[in-house]
What does this fold into?
Amino acid sequence: MKHVILGTAGHVDHGKTALIKALTGIDTDRLKEEKERGITIELGFAQLTLSSGQQVGIVDVPGHEKFVKNMVAGAGGIDVVALIIAADEGVMPQTREHLDICQLLGIRKGLAALTKIDLVDEEWRNLVIEDIKEFLQGTFLESSPVVPLSAVTGEGLSEFLSAMEFVIGETDERPEAGFFRLPVDRVFTMRGFGTVVTGTLLSGLVKIGDTVEIMPDQLPAKIRGIQIHNELSEVAVAGQRTAINLQGIEKETLQRGAVLATSNTFTPSVRMDVVLNYLPSAPRKLKNRTPVRFHTGTSEIIARIILFDGEAIAPGEEHYAQVLLDSPTIAMSGDRFVIRSYSPVTTIGGGEILDPLTQKHKRQMHTIAEDLSLLKDGTLQQKTRVILMRSGMNGITARELSVRTGTAPKRQDKILEEMFSKKEALLIDRDEQRVTSFTSYKDLQNRLCEDIASFHEKFPLKEGCPKEELRIRAGDYISSKLFNRAVRDLEKNGKIVVEKENVRTPEHRVALNGELDDMRGKIVRIYRESNLTPPATKDIVEQFPRKREAVHNVLNVMINERVLTKINEEMYFYTEHINTLAEEYKQFLLKNKQATPGIFREITGLSRKYTIPLMEYFDKTKLTIRIGDHRVLREKKENGN
It folds into this structure.
């Protein structure tokens, strides 16, 4: 059995609450002030079981102009609307405004009820019915039945129920495959239970024991209990009016406008790309950056409308725009919204959220219109491509992608698999399920290659660019996993060469010319002639005044060429001398088994200044191994001799 929410709409005192009571026996006006004033102020709730066994959740909304914001909060979860029009007054201002709101929120099913027919004669009744049908022309209710009835006498109630049952039978059920979301429309406490929230479950499902997040504050909460139509339940699904008992949450931390949602899925947002329908009834043009009251879900937030093209929207026009919110909320692509003027407060427009987590755009950019057109009317594949490109090189998680395309997770995963196979997308972090567009990934690789070439041009005497420096050049926002993946793939494809912690282009070679080549010759002679007692590095530098950096560059080149061997930061040796010493040292150990520092000094004639660093170097290069206070050949030790 599908789950459907029916909501009322219509002018104040046209009989919405009375009709619900006549149908269900439930008086949805629960507040003392409502009883005293005889009007609905807050949202009211009831339930009804039709003759077919179909259960219907009912949301009764206030009709007074002062409480339209409460009406909008309730209308966001409606599947079917019952537009209530009193026979003695006909179509009134809030009749029009409520119908505009229902259209802007994307409600597509409903029927009209002509109430209070006991107060008028038949001729007047027929005139009002004709007036209503004319009023409904061009709206989603133009082909819907108009049922005359009286909640007082009961006339027409059975016909209304039959018409309602027919409309509900043609209404699509909300999908259960999406993420769990329940916009909160009421918060209260119950003795012995604690905090309880109510709302219409928009998508997904929730079970007792689940941990959810209260958004946009990102507070964790555990589901302690669930009620559907005043009966306990283990699970609630999309399309049901639901009361949820939250464990460990104080009532004061929650208010209407909050959203219970699947954990670790939604990101609070203050900037959204939308398609905005500005009502023909709007009193004036909507100027760029005009403050408005932005309604989505059950929230009302002050916002500014930023236009991409032009300085104003005329009544009746549709435009792409960006909404900049004063405080954060959460939404999915495809969610509907309503905007009301800041002052005086009246409904002026609304539309559809295309990207709930967008960035600031430069106005009048051609690509913005192309992207938004695809997000509005494109296929799921096209929407996915747009969001992947918008997410840049660092990519986006699969969950966030589902939120920004408005696609159920399983369907989104299938689309990604197709894109992986076509090399349109790339999985860059399996743990996070983070993906990026293949175009963005290739752009990153090209940027890395350009940065390496630029480094070679600036530092021609360095063998390569340090990897960490290259990552910083690419941008701190680039994750280490993505960077390392790009470097590995570039190396695999022969675009770069990775040598220890340095990266270079395959064609890069260090060449010493002119003065630097002369310097190299002088340094070679110094180390060759000094045999096993070379000067410290700082002494080498002092022989070339004001050329410290050049000396170090030349020394690094000579080390990479293996002309010199680096023992430590201040001690370099001519490589031929070191190789000769290593062979002599090896032969001595083969014959004498072991050597102490004293013995090493005797066979080399060197002071402690050189012997200790040299012995440690031979340990490091795995010629020898230290055992106690003496050394033995590592290969002999490892062979068990």
Summary: The mean pLDDT is 90.
